[in-house]
Amino acid sequence: MTAVxxxxxxxxxxxxxxxxDRCNFRCTYCMPRALFGxxxxxxxxxELLDFDEIERLARIAAGLGVRKLRLTGGEPLLxxxxxxxxxxxxAIEGIDDICLTTNGSLLTEKRARELRAAGLNRVxxxxxxxDDDVFKAINDVGYPVAKVLGAIDNAKAAxxxxxxxxxxxxxxxxxxxxxxxxxxxxxxxxxxxxxxxMDVGTSNGWRMDDVVTAREIVDxxxxxxxxxxxxxxxxxxxxxRWLFDDGAGEIGIIAxxxxxxxxxxxxxxxxxxxxxxxxxxxxxxxxxxxxxxGGATDDELRERLAGIWQARDDRYSEQRGEQTARRRNEAGGxxxxxxxxx
Length: 342
Ligand code: SAM
Fold this sequence. Notes:
alpha/beta; 12 strands; binds S-adenosylmethionine
């Protein structure tokens, strides 16, 4: 293994792999129906990396220091036979953690067991409210809360824990849900994580005013429960960790807008068609599929991947403001979360 670092000496340790740009939800802040309706052109299947191509790039990335893989999308469980891919990824030397981020709609008891058996370690589920009306208005496909709670139980029963639940908090949309979400998951072994609404892509009409900051989230929780901040358990950790003083469990807060953590960012993202993004707020991905399908050897692909990482100087969240405006105006704009995955 030859570890690589970027221009700010950050190692490459995490690879997030988007398996598809499609999703069966139309969350208003991520894939709004007006832009992702029936006339939207999703990627044709032949464009997507196949499982062997994904495995090959993940193996090469592992050779450069990647230890952790996260499968995401779009909705990754829309990709059929995903357990075959997980089996392939689990066999890669050096990979010691494989996670999946999902909306839970396809995470049946059987599916959860199959994924675990294939080598998946953990899942993170997305749930932005416990009030059915609020949740249905956000996912915009009428999907009920109870079914996501069922998927969380399926993940726990299959041993895909500790299960994390992501809740993106938007002002005027679901900040009323902070305390109900806390009550739902206290004493449950589920790690609830509140995520500040981020200015990814260009389709969600993001405004700073819409962000419920980590400070506000903590104050809201503290209005009912005593919580204490914990030291980071790993360098480059995205969430600020908090524990309930009464032993009811852990809460995470991902403050990527109000307290950016670019300095510890060791994550690269691979789009479903094999473009490598070195920042969630990237405008341009770097194509790895072209060279791969054009016959590049493993050494050539390794060199290309290493070169992209070594040239990396992104620290978008720390420069937010000036750059937000500029990038939004660049041709094509920033890449959408549903395209490269959360
Ligand atoms: N479909 C899967 C799911 O629902 O978890 C995986 C893909 S989804 C893009 C991954 C995560 O990104 C979700 O938890 C979603 O809430 C989050 N997300 C999407 N847009 C976001 C934004 N603008 N700010 C913060 N998180 C966002």
